[in-house]
């Protein structure tokens, strides 16, 4: 790196920006001062001249200052106006909603999905209900709003689809704050929107609340609207060339509209690590540039003219394909490379990559936090650095195959830490899938689809003929991906690693390959420097390993410390992988985590020996009628797939020892479908009855198909989970149904599984959605008034530490007698924020508080986590400062 000052300068800039992002105030200045104190040591190790070192330090400081300046200006003027207005603090509270009228310009394409249209609006004027005058446009500062427009009919959806960037809209709606993460490690929508410089949501109902103004003057946004129209036209032509699901796939492959691919097929690509195919990037640009150069060569265009044509083509291609960070990076690199090539200065790809990174970060510092930006640059840098180091291992392959294999292996190796950091999963078949499919798609489907699209503009049947073999290839591609995804046991889930873990992984991989490469070069040089003829004596083999370098004899014994270093680095990598694969909650302590799934129940129990038990999975409740199917989104929100499964992955859980479904209601069972589909589950525990619903039928079919044992929980049963953890079932009561037969029951709340969990000296009571009748029955059993009077003796103490309140705090349960018997020290209520049921009921909350229990509520606290050790419980919750 000493010979690449631009690379070092850009790395220094990014390091300074990262420091400013992670730390502020006194912590920032301490780390900044520490960096300057360490610089001399770094210079001594790298033998970097002190002048260069000083320049890098200044660039580091400048990067931090640049980030701090831009981040400090990323504030909402609307919040300031609301706080200063006579609307008071309620207008800017977390749940506060304010009626506003805004006028502004469309900044983004309108995305219509089901009965909702989403777009970004730059404010030109805004007026608040309760304020006398509107804020002038020059005072608004161009603040952006994300608008969510609820559509009333299919006709309204069609009308909204016709809006284009650059148009001016007037609309009235409700101003709301974006949701923040409600679970530890969950997606923070508020934080994400801030990186887009958006601080507020505007929710409006129906396009009757929107007035679209006629186009007035030309603006950059209006020109982008023309690009959107052209892109839409290309999408319509692709639909004519490729039927059904292939249209969505080819839109992603050719023009970057990956969102239109069927969710199921996108998931197949995602699980195999193939989604980069649908993100327009360097390979797409390289293939299209090569095609253009080839056509221009056939037309006998001069080299200089060809360079100019391609140079002008790149910005157009970047705009047409969506202007994403990955395509901007590849476009900039191509343009810089062409310019340097014409000047005769193109020597080093890392310098070109660094120049592109610096230009993008100067334009938008928040690109540094963008996943696409990070993956694009790190993978590109990895290809430049690692491919030459990997090529000697692949010499047994033909040259082109070796190059393709080295690129695939390097890309997988470099992207692995970022992949598990953001997506928390990695398929062991990913390398094979990429080696098999990426070359075929890149060399046949992409150019073939491009040719079909372009030639169809001249004559549609010609484009259809060219598209036909591409269709067959697409069908074969997804047959292969489906077959690979059907292979069980190859998907692994990883907790998000620390930045230190990632840095050590990259350093160990590079040093291991580098030292191996250097050893190979030294051996080759020694052999080439030896005499052509070797004496035939017993020492000939030993002398063959001797050579002459720099006038001095080199003995193979001197390489032994380097061999030991290589072994140490390989061992370090194995240790890193082992530690990274361990779950977030290490063994030795128990954990009970009440996950916020909105209006529903979900809890994850991790025993001190590492057993994982999931109790319920939440579920999305829909009251939509069949005739309103048009309102459904392409990928409807489902709490199991969008909340529960990602959180389990992020916490490094690879299998569940048991799943307990307390009863068959949708808000408890719905989310378990995604859990059973994606995780290995050793046992499914149900209440012995089934509800007559499609959700339960599909869940049971999935469990049977995957060979998951299903057990019926009954009063008196006990489970010894590990040496320090025991579970006792209190309800439902045994029935008289024939053994092995499961009955249907509409009284699912009454039949809820109720159990006591005793773990390392602490006691938890889980109650499902039991009603008061079930409570009284359990109390009678425990009091010895029924035929199972010995049940109370199985519970070591009637005083419990934590009670999960039944039925989200509904008034139909949690009676005074129930609380009096158990006397819980703490109570957890799982309910959705601003739910339409009014849960928890005020009388229940008052009753619990009067009993002396401390109350934790997911609607107010978000996820509630409890760590148990030797009978002591430590509690933290997401929406307040953690431990």
UniProtKB/TrEMBL annotation:
It holds the Pfam family DUF4131. Counteracts the endogenous Pycsar antiviral defense system. Phosphodiesterase that enables metal-dependent hydrolysis of host cyclic nucleotide Pycsar defense signals such as cCMP and cUMP. InterPro entries: ComA-like_MBL, ComEC_N, Competence_DNA_uptake, DUF4131, Metallo-B-lactamas, RibonucZ/Hydroxyglut_hydro. Residues 599-807 form the Metallo-beta-lactamase domain. PANTHER family: DNA INTERNALIZATION/COMPETENCE PROTEIN COMEC/REC2, RECOMBINATION PROTEIN 2. Gene3D superfamilies: Ribonuclease Z/Hydroxyacylglutathione hydrolase-like. It catalyses: 3',5'-cyclic CMP + H2O = CMP + H(+); 3',5'-cyclic UMP + H2O = UMP + H(+). This is Metallo-beta-lactamase domain-containing protein. It is found in: Cell membrane. It comes from the Bacteria. It is a multi-pass membrane protein. The chain crosses the membrane at residues 30-46, 53-69, 277-299, 306-324, 344-363, 375-395, 401-423, 435-460, 498-515, 563-581. It comes from Paenibacillus woosongensis. Keywords: Cell membrane, Membrane, Transmembrane, Transmembrane helix. SMART domains: Lactamase_B.
